[in-house]
Known about the structure:
Elements: H1 14-49, H2 52-86, H3 100-110, H4 112-131, H5 135-143, H6 158-193, E1 196-197, E2 204-205, H7 207-234, H8 250-276, H9 284-313, H10 317-320, H11 322-335, E3 343-347, H12 360-367, H13 378-385, E4 391-392, E5 398-404, E6 407-415, E7 417-418, H14 430-436, E8 440-441, E9 443-447, E10 451-452, H15 456-462, E11 482-483, E12 486-488, H16 490-496, E13 510-511, E14 524-528, E15 536-537, E16 543-544, E17 552-553, H17 557-566, H18 571-574, E18 582-586, H19 590-597, E19 602-603, E20 608-612, E21 615-626, E22 635-636, H20 637-640, H21 644-649, E23 657-658, E24 660-670, E25 676-680, H22 686-694, H23 707-710, H24 717-730, H25 735-740, E26 745-746, E27 764-769, E28 776-786, E29 791-799, E30 808-812, E31 819-820, H26 822-830, H27 833-843, E32 848-852, E33 856-860, E34 864-875, E35 884-892, E36 895-899, H28 902-909, H29 952-975, H30 978-997
Parallel strand pairs: 3-30
Antiparallel strand pairs: 1-2, 4-7, 5-6, 6-9, 8-13, 9-12, 10-11, 14-18, 15-16, 17-18, 19-21, 20-21, 21-24, 22-23, 24-25, 26-28, 27-28, 28-29, 29-30, 29-31, 32-34, 33-34, 34-35, 35-36
Helix pairs in contact: 1-2, 1-17, 2-4, 2-6, 5-6, 5-22, 6-7, 7-8, 8-9, 29-30
Amino acid sequence: MGMRPPTGLPSLSRRSRILLLTALVLAALLLVGPRLTDAYTSWLWFGEVGFRQVFTTVLVTRILLFLVVAIVVGAIIWLAMLAAYRARPVFVPVSGPNDPIARYRTTVMGRLRLFGIGLPLVVGLLCGLVAQSSWVTVQLFLHGGAFGVKDPQFHLDVSFYAFNLPFYKMMLNWLFVAAVIAFFANLVAHYIFGGLRLSGREGTLSSPARIQLAVTAGIFVLLKAIAYWFDRYSLLMSTRKEPTFTGGSYTDINAVLPAKLILLSIAVICAVAFFAGVVLKDLRVPAMAAALLVLSSILVGAVWPLIVEQFEVRPNAATKEATYISRNIQATRAAYGLGGNKVQYVQYPGVQTKDPATIPADQQTIANIRLLDPNVLSPTFLQKQQLQNFYGFPDTLDIDRYTVNGQLQDYIVAARELQPQNLSGNQLDWINKHTVYTHGDGFVAAPANRVNQAPPKETEQAASGVTNNSSGSGAASGTYGYPVFNVGDKTTVSDLFSTMPQAIPVTQPRIYYGPLISKSDADYAIIGGNRQPPREYDTSTQQFTYGGKGGVPIGNWFNRLTFAAKYAERNILFSGAIGSDSKIIFNRDPATRVQQVAPWLTTDGDVYPAVVNGRIQWIVDCYTTLDNYPYAQHSSLDGLAQDSIDETTGRVLPRKEVSYIRNSVKATVDAYDGTVSLYATDPTDPVLKAWEGVFPGTVKPASAITPQLRAHFRYPQDLFKVQRDILGRYHVDDPREFFTNNAFWSVPNDPTTDTPTNANQPPYYVLKGNPATGQPSFDLTSAMVGYKRQFLSAYISVSSDPTDYGKFTVLELPQDSQTQGPAQVQTSMTTDARVSNERTTLTGGNTNKIRYGNLLTLPIGNGGILYVEPWYLERNSSNASFPQLVKVLASYNGNVGYEATLGDALNSMQSGLGGAATLQPGQSSSPPPSQSTPSPGQGGTPPPALPPTGSSAARDAAVQELNSALKGVNDAQKSGDLGQLGTAFQALQKAIDDYNKSGG
């Protein structure tokens, strides 16, 4: 039987090759086509917003990084394979007729270019695709500057860890990848070409193969020695002691650090041993060196630190770790903007030392106590101010402040946006959805400390001249307990502006860009053009044609074809609604627009609207972050920024771990034309300076911020949540006390949630009196309780005012006495006998439900703590139900107040305390019944005289009044009219008071 010659792979027929080539071309088009389409539309979009430099810089950086890594890795692999091919044996014996290696050798020899160039090229391209995502590391390395702060161990500027070290480690990683792949490529090539044979007992290895493999392995070990050198610096970001603290611990500095130097030396010796394999034919020396490296990495790198940790550190941890905890405290404060003069600590007694009525700042605080909860009142805004079914409001409203009639006032604000989810029926037709229902309309605001609390008839007379709805009319019957609305929309702007001036004038109320608009399956609208008549709905009777500068031209056929491919929508090609000057707007979410033009920023989860010079602007807080600040505590943004409101609304939070954060940039997005502006608010931030070097001119200087815009900057909630958690631990100065956790604070659980959870209480914006300036200050505040306890331990507030923006004040309560925290106060208020009894009456046998408003914590009385919580009532059975304020609870000095108005609730706890509470239009705080008779000349009909207090006739009259009031409550509950129900409850409260005074 003759030997069968080795054969290669079977060849394809001409037809098969054509079909295969066609399939590859189609696959490439499917893979590359959408990316080319996205790249072109992104090019157009970046041109529209004026940030094309960002697009080109990022694209060029990615391409260059891709090419460099692909070429370097591919070239190293190609050289390894070429060296093996050039050094192949001249004659390679065949082991038998079915020797598979001979067959592979024949195939490779027949297609040398395919294998010799194709394989390194494919591997290089794959590595380049992965590497291009590291463009941020490269740009920060190229443009990073000094921090001016040195680490306590190596005394290097922090910029080395922030900008340089990540780049060096990235380069090392790719060289490691190239060396490993090159080693195995060289090994396989020698095996195929005969330099390495496994036949026989020990196999054979040719001299060239031995030299090449030894050199490649020596380079790898040498790279490992360099890696050990840089690993020393990474110890300053060690997580060995988490969650106690972050950074190099005693074990890291005194055991691991010397171990890294020892391992570095051993690695250099091992590399020399591998290089010695070039002249030594015996491979036992390199093998022994490799074994030594592995053994030493286990013993020196792992076992020794473990011994030091267990037997030296743990028995004396507080003492051993004191130095390193102190480093962690200082670095964390600096990294999170809580060092130096940023935080002022004030000792606060927790009990009243002065009457708040005599303190002007406390009177301002009381006058501005917020009754409206933005987390509860979205349904009320929707039912009262929606106008059209296609408009809507976010689940959580916002708080901002405006100066009206010379007085600073905080408002619950919202933009009346287009809400695509509300469209139904023929409104969902493509023409209607994308060319008719294109925008929202109006800015709605309500004073945060005011509601219509007068009975309906009084309210109609008292609220004349107050804008209560979109048409500018006064409060209507049944508005008891509802917000006093001020609205800026196309109706008030055009028809009523001259007769009914807005407290917050809006000259361009139409909203083409907003968070709700973008929440649809296709975030685009086709606008503008010479449309006669106009087709974009303001209302069901009035249409509009967009004339702003926003949008990408879609009149030419190439752009129409591109966008038709992007959205897989043929109507874009064939619709007659698109004219030669039509435009398409997309990327309409303000946070997304900012993230696109500034991909190096992390945006806050809460975007809020503000009226600036008559235009609605979305304000977006942006952060510069690092994840490798030496010795600084690591924080998870999505973890620490999560609270009860986020759990309820499902708000998306940035999933990112950081060890450095700054709110260095404020961004605005114009709601009408989508203009994006970035403003530097912390020009001293080294990370911001680095990015300004990458993208010069994209961030406007702080001097470009107008006073009107700066007046609406708020301290961001997400950043504050992270910082309050940091302050809960890092207010401690003594490292040993820090180690015990005894002096730590915790964020309290939210006691007002409907279902018991462990969710954090959210921080609250409040307008507080400021004794230093004499004017109210718009602060973001949070109560803090003791570690694993419920007693109040601290009160943190940070100012949003332009003059003191970002300044923290921490009121520290004494540890030897106990002041009730939010959960304890909530319990004491809700279990009060009067509150508990009336809560049952309010719910009416599950006909209604109580919505607990935000529990505000306010320091007054030069040491006292006032808690205020509004209660809202909402029907259970109606789909169109919405909350109405019915009661105000308060707690101060151990007393509980529970009345229909804030002033009465405060006065019931301490006489005169509610005198400064904001009075409702035409209404004053309710005096006792004995003082309710009109004075001479006051006018009006006095109420019927009551029998003498304590008499039997008085009790009988009071009982009759009480029965009548209870019947009125029952009738109101059956009617479903919350306005009538509120009036009935007021009558019931008066009847109860009269009954008590009668001696009943």
